[in-house]
Fold:
Amino acid sequence: MIKNIINLRDKLEALLLIQENFHNDGKVADYIPALAGVSPKLMGVSVATIDGNVIGAGDHQIPFSIQSISKVFGLVMAMNRLGDELWHRVNMEPSGQPFNSIIQLEWEKGIPRNPVINAGALLVADVLTSHFSASKLAFLTFLRKLAADENIFIDNHVYQSELSHGSRNAAMGYLMKSFGNIEAEIPEVLSHYFTQCSVAMSCQQLASSLLFLANKGIDPKTNNTICSPRDAHRVNAILSTSGMYDQSGEFAFSVGLPAKSGVGGGVVAIVPGYGVICSWSPPLNRFGNSVVGTNLVSDLAEELGLSIYH
Ligand code: GLN
Structure:
């Protein structure tokens, strides 16, 4: 593992240099118009360790749209609030389909394949909307507490953009409601879901805020219990099998870490017992995963021997 922190910063800088031109291999998400305006050349990486170091390089302090990385936080909140009942309403199987696919929902009677594809995250958003009196505020408060940073904010421009281009997510919501698997009204569920996707955070904040997943549910910064060890295990298992969407198999094969991507270009990877890596670069591959972000996690995991399958 990483013994020398000075060396780690040098290593991260070296890895960024290698990636300098690889952003050309991807395309910035434009189906949410507000995301299309972000520079494809930005890139950063941070590593937070459970023993208290946070090391970064490049644009690691610039906030970006966390998008589907928010699904991890929403899932933890829903697991804490609903307990095992959640798993009667959402499955824990990889989907093998694009993140916003609707096709399995009809076959599988409105039960999403897993909580980190859009259908599953909408189900989780329904749980939060129905079980918190002010779910958006609760979500933001949770993130601020985890990152120990009151400045984390919702990017309203991104929120409005998602809201006005959210027909596919709305369709999934209504389909699940037709099967009786959504309690709240769909506009409320969508509003919560788009709010959590529109949160802006930096690599540094994201890496630090997810440390509890590398530490059996306990935030090492505060010693607060964020979730049970069993639920930390379950979240990591779901991220290993589904966090990189229909590239999850390849990612497990070549990298071997629980991870989650977002169409804002962020990738987080959990290294149990050690810490969290977060990388960011907006251009995406055809699966909706950041090209450079994925390369950075992959290269670092390879160099430091971080795979959980060793
Ligand atoms: N807000 C995005 C959507 O619903 C999130 C998708 C993602 O990051 N993969 O399409």
